[in-house]
Design goal:
The chain is mainly alpha-helical. It has 9 helices and no strands. Helix 2 packs across helix 9 and helix 4 packs antiparallel against helix 5.
């Protein structure tokens, strides 16, 4: 599956522009971390890009999130590995291979970082750094929707939390214009 085909499929199923931006952010974070595990970033990036393809159709049945995505991806010829990562990311614990486990955390860290940019007066990713996010990490009201336990799960993969946030922010800064920040 090529990126352009995956993006077209996302746009077929996802109408909310902010959700698409979130998926683009997850794509770039995933691609960035693939190299850390000595892997080609293509599958990792695609998994990030399509991970929430079913969110709008499962909003009234959140227990189906991930399952519907898996059906869509299978019907469109995605690899079993990508399907597994996408199906696993909403589960209660990280599971599967490193790509699946990273998606579990990358999904949440992007929201945390976007919230950081939006509370800064400039409302730009370039205006913040990892320390800015880390100072607010334990504030329950800051980015309340970003699950801190899911973000911290990267520590089980040998990645310190502050490094994960720093590197994720750098990856997102590289595509700031695509995500409007």
């Amino acid at each position: 599956m090529q990126r352009e085909e995956a993006l077209n499929l996302v746009k077929k199923y996802v109408k909310n522009n902010n959700l698409i931006k979130h998926m683009l952010a997850a794509e770039t974070v995933m691609k960035h971390f693939a190299a850390r595990f000595g892997e080609d970033g293509s599958d990792w990036a695609i998994a990030g890009l399509v991970h929430d393809i079913d969110v709008e159709m499962t909003k009234d049945c959140p227990g189906l999130h991930g399952k519907k995505s898996a059906e869509i991806l299978k019907a469109n010829g995605f690899s079993d590995r990508i399907i597994e990562a996408v199906a696993n990311h909403p589960k209660d614990e990280p599971m599967g291979d490193n790509m699946s486990k990273m998606l579990y955390s990358a999904d949440q860290v992007t929201g945390l970082i976007v919230a950081g940019a939006l509370i800064h007066p400039d409302k730009k990713l370039a205006a913040i750094n990892g320390d800015f996010i880390m100072k607010r990490f334990n504030e329950k009201r800051f980015a309340a929707g970003a699950n801190r336990d899911r973000i911290k799960a990267v520590e089980k993969m040998g990645i310190p939390l502050s490094e994960f946030i720093d590197e994720s922010l750098k990856a997102m800064q590289a595509i700031h214009s695509e995500i409007g920040l």
